[in-house]
């Protein structure tokens, strides 16, 4: 496995980062995950723009525009040019003696790797999820590497043999530990607005666009935990998750077997066609 580190491509064993890197010490970094399908990265521009945006929000100075060329070099070295794969990009503030404030004249650490990845068949998934209080900070719009909250919440889902953990803040569903969540009620698709309480997923944006082109009504407002029993359908979205149908939320059963709802099915079919 090859790793891109600050302009060099090296075997992963040789990709070494200082213990004083602020990514390691503070989780002070931004990351992206995208997938190459049928020879091109799915919504590459949108992913790179979100990366640019995240770096700007935390004032890490790095020119994202150099990445496409570097990504091509990495894929070639990894023998993944045009192959189905997942690309991980992480940019941290860089190495400096430990201090909380941003050090002056610091050089960011840029790390990327690509691994072969064939996306799971989304139509096979009928997910059970748990719900938990969203105890994360209130800048979830930043795709930062400090993911301990998300990791803790996801681990709980695994303990319960569930696929994901959906979070709620002040009684309103926000998103899941590594995906966005949608609900369908009376043929209207609901999802939390893209404010500071959720990551605005690229798949989330694609799904909203698909709803528009399929004439499915959308309402970007949160669903309350008190409305759970009035929900007809629910699904998760994400780069790897794609659109995963939810069959059970805590004790509440939405459907049994593989009888997922018609709107979820329609959106899954439409998403597949984009690839
Ligand atoms: N996770 N919300 C959170 C908290 C996420 O971490 C992700 C993505 C999403 C969905 O975003 P997108 O559709 O752009 O993938 C929503 C990535 C895949 C990860 O951390 O591995």
Automatic annotation (TrEMBL):
GO terms for cellular component: cytosol. Signal peptide: none annotated. It holds the Pfam family Aminotran_4. One of its GO terms (biological process) is carboxylic acid biosynthetic process. Keywords: Pyridoxal phosphate. GO terms for molecular function: catalytic activity. It comes from the Bacteria. Its cofactor is pyridoxal 5'-phosphate. InterPro entries: Aminotrans_IV (IPR001544), Aminotrans_IV_CS (IPR018300), Aminotransferase-like (IPR036038), BCAT-like_C (IPR043132), BCAT-like_N (IPR043131), Class-IV_PLP-Dep_Aminotrnsfr (IPR050571). Belongs to the class-IV pyridoxal-phosphate-dependent aminotransferase family. This is D-alanine transaminase. It comes from Maribacter stanieri. The lineage of its organism: Bacteria, Pseudomonadati, Bacteroidota, Flavobacteriia, Flavobacteriales.
């Amino acid at each position: 496995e090859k790793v891109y580190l600050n302009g060099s491509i090296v075997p992963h064993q040789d990709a070494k980062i200082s213990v004083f890197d602020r990514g390691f010490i503070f989780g002070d970094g931004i990351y992206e995950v995208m997938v190459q399908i049928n020879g091109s990265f799915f919504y590459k521009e949108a992913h790179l723009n979100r990366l640019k945006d995240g770096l700007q929000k935390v004032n890490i100075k790095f020119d994202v525009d150099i990445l496409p060329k570097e990504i091509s070099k990495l894929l070639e070295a990894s023998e993944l040019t045009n192959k189905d794969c997942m690309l991980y990009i992480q940019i941290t503030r860089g190495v400096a003696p430990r201090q909380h404030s941003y050090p002056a004249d610091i050089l960011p650490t840029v790390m990327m790797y690509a691994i072969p990845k064939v996306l799971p068949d989304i139509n096979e998934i009928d997910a059970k999820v748990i719900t938990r209080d969203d105890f994360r900070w209130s800048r979830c719009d930043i795709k930062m590497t400090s993911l301990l909250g998300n990791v803790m919440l996801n681990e709980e889902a695994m303990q319960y043999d569930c696929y994901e953990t959906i979070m709620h803040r002040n009684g309103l569903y926000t998103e899941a530990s590594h995906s966005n969540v949608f609900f369908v009620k009376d043929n209207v698709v609901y999802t939390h607005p893209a404010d500071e309480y959720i990551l605005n997923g690229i798949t989330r944006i694609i799904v909203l666009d698909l709803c528009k082109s399929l004439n499915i009504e959308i309402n970007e407002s949160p669903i309350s935990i008190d409305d759970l029993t009035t929900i007809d359908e629910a699904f998760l979205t994400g780069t790897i998750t794609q659109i995963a149908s939810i069959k059970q939320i805590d004790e509440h059963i939405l459907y049994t077997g593989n009888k997922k709802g018609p709107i979820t099915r329609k959106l899954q079919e439409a998403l597949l066609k984009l690839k």
